[in-house]
TrEMBL record:
Enzyme class, broadest EC rank: oxidoreductase
Lineage, broadest ranks: Eukaryota, Viridiplantae, Streptophyta, Embryophyta, Tracheophyta
Keywords: Metal-binding, Mitochondrion, Oxidoreductase
Annotated Gene Ontology cellular component terms: mitochondrion
Organism of derivation: Salvia splendens
Main localization category: mitochondrion
Catalysed conversion reaction: 2 superoxide + 2 H(+) = H2O2 + O2
Protein name as annotated: superoxide dismutase
Residue ranges of domain Manganese/iron superoxide dismutase N-terminal in the record: 25-106
Pfam family, one: Sod_Fe_N
Family membership noted in the UniProt record: Belongs to the iron/manganese superoxide dismutase family.
């Protein structure tokens, strides 16, 4: 959204002050299972660390870069917008990839034949 706003503006004109534009922020998704449900393949401690620290870092940095992008676009600062693209791509991609990763993991469900 912010990039479209910047492109649509004449970069040589002073940017009009914009009230809070309400940029979207992202948050850590809940897992569809408990941290310990993937043991013994993945320990609960590793799952918690990976989810709460590693994935959360991508989200924190993604939100920060989006806020900076919104501010730069509001000022018409194309140079900063371009510089932020790699941070947005890296951290946004990390968030999306981890969100997919969590859904692709599943606890091992041991079933027993009911007619034995």
């Amino acid at each position: 959204m912010a990039l479209r706003t910047l492109i649509a503006r004449n970069p040589l004109r002073a940017a009009a002050p914009v009230a809070s534009r309400g940029i979207q922020t992202f948050s850590l998704p809940d897992l569809p299972y408990d941290y310990g449900e993937l043991e013994p393949a993945i320990s609960a401690e590793i799952m918690q660390l990976h989810h709460q620290k590693h994935h959360q870092t991508y989200i924190t940095n993604y939100n920060k870069a989006l806020e900076q992008l919104d501010a730069a676009a509001a000022k018409g600062d194309a140079s900063t917008v371009v510089k932020l693209q790699s941070a947005i791509k890296f951290n946004g991609g990390g968030h999306v990839n981890h969100s997919i990763f969590w859904k692709n993991l599943a606890p091992i469900r041991v079933s027993t034949p009911s007619n034995v």
